[in-house]
Description:
Blueprint: H1 4-28, H2 45-69, H3 85-103, H4 105-111, H5 118-164
Helix pairs in contact: 1-2, 1-5, 2-3, 2-5, 3-4
Amino acid sequence: MLTAEDWWRLAAIGFVMMLGTIAVLDAYYPGGLFTLFAKGTQPNVADEVHARTMAFTTLMMFQLFNVYNCRSNWRSAFSGFFENKWLLAAVALSLFAHVLVIYVPFLQTAFHTVSLSLLDWTIATGVASTLLIGMEIFKFVLRIERRAAPAAAGKTVRGQATSRA
């Protein structure tokens, strides 16, 4: 059963993914609010397909980063990173399938994608990694609070015991 905290976490993760994906789409889309990487200034098919491929790749990378966040609500995503061989294989297979969709000509036609440059991959991965970084900071704070809570509870209990005696 999901708690209220779980629902807030899911909403925040979804919001970060949405914001990052739309930002990348806009950066590559000609005539967008913050067009940074489009070759043309007016909407055209080549830039639109490139922008959609970048948005698709960014969203896919968000999911691959998030799968490691989902292993624990408080433990670091890097803790026991290589323990689950099935998860590693699934992530590798997902990335491989995505690469096929982007670089194999008949799959490019079927999925309306274009090849991406190393810079494109760096941007998509960098934007998607913000979720991992943000969740690592959040989990770090949770771990600090967990360590502090028993100490604070112990002081209160000792203080009450002393005042009763």
